[in-house]
Task: inverse folding
């Protein structure tokens, strides 16, 4: 039994008191942290001033003067450094978000495949995991990039598998619908479809809870979204004009392009992270007691249903916490983009740092951005973890 | 990797653990250490690259050696620190290196807000374009819509955007961290064009492509790139020494003094030569070093023309013309300030 402060026998000096000591240590630690922080900042500022290097983030509003090919928002060289960095950040977020989704899907499939009773499938999955997770990611990225740019033909000999689709070492060019105000209605229709699906899913769950009748929610939701989008498209005037890529000059004009840099980075990150996720999924499934499988089988469930209804929901509790680390890894590994020419946040920041010479500010920006996004990812995952955790379990 | 170095340099700047913590004390710090620490390129033929025996060579390396000779009378007392475009300035600012001789373009912002001072220009370069001959491009004006490979973190990216903007052409940049990767993407057909300083395009065409004749360097020069060694701002005595070490090499070429004839020339009665070679005039003492500093530089490193020929000119693999880097009296821009 621990002694409470009030239990202290008289005669023991205050500095031997457990509670006072606890507070004292915390105060000392805080003071040390604050002092080191102050010392670092003031020392930096003094050093910078001595060397007459200008400081501050004012440079962000100066004209960038360089171009970025991969842009989700419009960017011209006349725009500011700040806007350039946002373009880079959006590229990072885009590749990370898509990568996380794809790596989760691929990783789950491979992880389940490793548990398969089919000898060949299980061995193939094992080989995949062992090969991929034991080769450095940077090498894999170089491999994918070289594979894409060296094995595909040049622009003038581009592969042309479908009308309007070109595949070359400049990437994949595909037709996209020309945007037109009428098409906003299709988006509205899609939104209505999603909202309706959510209500449908709630209703279906309630009905299943009450009567045990399952409802094919996924197919119904897909149908709803497609039908409502189509109605919206019709209301908007049914524009069907496509922007089709055409060979012109040095490359293609029109359509949408998927660059080799983006593709290589996405494939590399997905394939690499999926190997780790596969192991986490396998571990999670194995963590569920075998009695659960036996019980489910005794109830007459098919093996697919056993996995989907019994094993995965329980495995999720084990899977989610380590999965958070993998998502964070994928996000941070996306900074290797600079090696294969993809303009992610670090790559843009690197150019900004060199043009302005504001190294400390630019390194601070990298740290701030990656810290913020990482914390957002982990807080989302923690929220999700709480959702799937056992009710009433104490944590 | 490069980010690690940059971050480390930034940390060094933050914590102030670097050798020369005080701006202004580099001269004494170098003297006390007995060795010059010079930042150079990681490997650019003709400018700074280790040769097949691992000995650093190049015109930038020669500047470092010249300064070491001025200081210690010994061209070997240099430690070379290979730097990328991204970490070169932080390395200088943090005091990790004493001087930076890494084909660095002099610009106003680098001279001011980045806290550097630049020695005399030791190489006049300009940015150009290289394309595959089969594209049949004769001028950079025909590059509308082209995909351009470029190395990040240099003035190159900005010049490229400026040039296309002022000619009202669009283009797609593909930006790489390392030159080798950018060149590989270009020769692999990812880009139509590679852009860099013309001296580098020459070196790439000479040594990094399979068939040099398949590539042409377009006639346009789209920027002025004067390269010079840099020291920290506010470090006047040190700055003077670096500056006059460079001038000594140029002045030597102007006066016809070479590493071969310097022992003859030192007996000359020409007052200009006597001052340059330290026979009298006290030029070295004014800089705080041996009066014979220029004599030693010429003896051990050679004059500017010898350095150029050995590293970039006829005597090298790169085989560049002297062009703008010829002496002013031969139609170039190299001009030494009088030694008196």
Result:
């Amino acid at each position: 039994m621990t002694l409470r402060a009030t239990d202290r026998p008289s005669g023991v000096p205050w500095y031997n008191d457990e509670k006072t000591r606890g507070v004292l240590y915390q105060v000392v630690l805080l003071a040390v942290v604050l002092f080191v922080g102050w010392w670092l900042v003031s020392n930096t500022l003094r050093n910078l001033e001595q060397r007459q290097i200008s400081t501050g983030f004012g440079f962000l509003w100066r004209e960038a003067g360089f171009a970025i090919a991969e842009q989700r928002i419009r960017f011209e060289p006349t725009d500011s450094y700040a806007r350039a960095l946002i373009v880079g950040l959006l590229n990072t977020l885009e590749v990370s978000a898509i990568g996380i989704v794809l790596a989760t899907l691929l990783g789950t499939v491979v992880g389940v495949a490793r548990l398969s009773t089919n000898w060949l499938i299980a061995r193939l999955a094992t080989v995949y995991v062992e090969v991929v997770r034991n080769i450095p990611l940077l090498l894999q990225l170089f491999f994918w990039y070289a594979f894409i740019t060296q094995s595909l033909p040049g622009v003038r000999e581009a592969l042309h598998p479908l009308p309007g689709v070109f595949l070359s070492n400049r990437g994949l060019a595909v037709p996209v619908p020309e945007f037109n105000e009428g098409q906003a209605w299709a988006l509205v229709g899609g939104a209505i479809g999603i909202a309706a699906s959510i209500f449908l899913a709630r209703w279906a769950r309630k009905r299943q809870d009450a009567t045990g009748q399952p409802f094919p929610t996924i197919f119904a939701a897909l149908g709803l979204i497609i039908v409502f989008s189509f109605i919206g498209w019709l209301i908007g005037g049914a524009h069907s004009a496509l922007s089709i890529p055409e060979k012109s000059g040095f490359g293609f004009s029109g359509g949408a392009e998927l660059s080799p840099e983006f593709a290589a980075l996405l494939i590399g990150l997905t394939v690499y992270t999926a190997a780790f996720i596969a192991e986490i999924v396998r571990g999670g499934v194995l963590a569920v007691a075998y009695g659960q499988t036996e019980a489910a089988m005794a109830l007459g469930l098919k093996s697919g249903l056993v996995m989907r209804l019994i094993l995965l929901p329980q495995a999720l509790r084990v899977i989610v916490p380590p999965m958070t680390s993998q998502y964070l890894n994928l996000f941070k590994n996306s900074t290797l983009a600079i090696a294969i020419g993809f303009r992610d946040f670090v790559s843009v920041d690197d150019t900004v740092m060199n043009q302005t010479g504001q190294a400390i500010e630019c390194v601070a920006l990298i740290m701030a951005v990656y810290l913020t996004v990482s914390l957002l990812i982990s807080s989302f995952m923690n929220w999700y973890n709480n959702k799937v955790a056992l009710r009433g379990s104490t944590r | 990797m490069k980010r690690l170095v940059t971050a480390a340099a930034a940390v060094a700047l933050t914590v102030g653990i670097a050798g020369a913590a005080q701006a202004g004390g580099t001269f004494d710090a170098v003297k006390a250490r007995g060795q010059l620490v010079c930042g150079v390129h990681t490997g650019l033929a003709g400018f700074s690259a280790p040769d097949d025996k691992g000995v650093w060579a190049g015109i930038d390396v020669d500047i470092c050696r010249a300064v070491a000779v001025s200081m210690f009378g010994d061209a070997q007392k240099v430690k070379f620190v290979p730097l990328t475009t991204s970490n070169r300035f932080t390395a200088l600012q943090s005091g990790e290196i004493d001087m930076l001789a890494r084909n660095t373009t002099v610009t106003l912002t680098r001279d001011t807000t980045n806290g550097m001072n630049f020695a005399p220009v030791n190489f006049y370069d300009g940015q150009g374009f290289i394309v595959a001959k089969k594209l049949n491009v004769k001028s950079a004006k025909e590059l509308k819509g082209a995909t351009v490979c470029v190395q990040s973190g240099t003035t190159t990216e900005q010049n490229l955007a400026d040039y296309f903007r002022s000619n009202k052409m669009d283009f797609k940049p593909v930006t790489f961290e390392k030159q080798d990767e950018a060149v590989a993407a270009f020769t692999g057909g990812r880009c139509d064009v590679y852009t860099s300083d013309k001296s580098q395009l020459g070196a790439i065409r000479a040594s990094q492509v399979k068939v040099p004749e398949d590539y042409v360097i377009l006639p346009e020069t789209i920027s002025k790139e004067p390269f010079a060694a840099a020291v920290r701002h506010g470090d006047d005595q040190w700055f003077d020494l670096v500056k006059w070490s460079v001038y000594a090499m140029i002045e030597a070429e102007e006066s016809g003094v070479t590493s071969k004839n310097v022992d003859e020339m030192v007996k000359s009665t020409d007052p200009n030569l006597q001052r340059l070679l330290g026979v009298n005039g006290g030029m070295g003492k004014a800089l705080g070093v041996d009066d014979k500093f220029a004599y030693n530089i010429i003896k051990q490193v050679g004059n500017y023309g010898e350095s150029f020929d050995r590293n970039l000119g006829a005597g090298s693999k790169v085989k560049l013309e002297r062009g703008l880097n010829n002496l002013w009296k031969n139609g170039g821009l190299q001009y030494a300030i009088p030694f008196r």
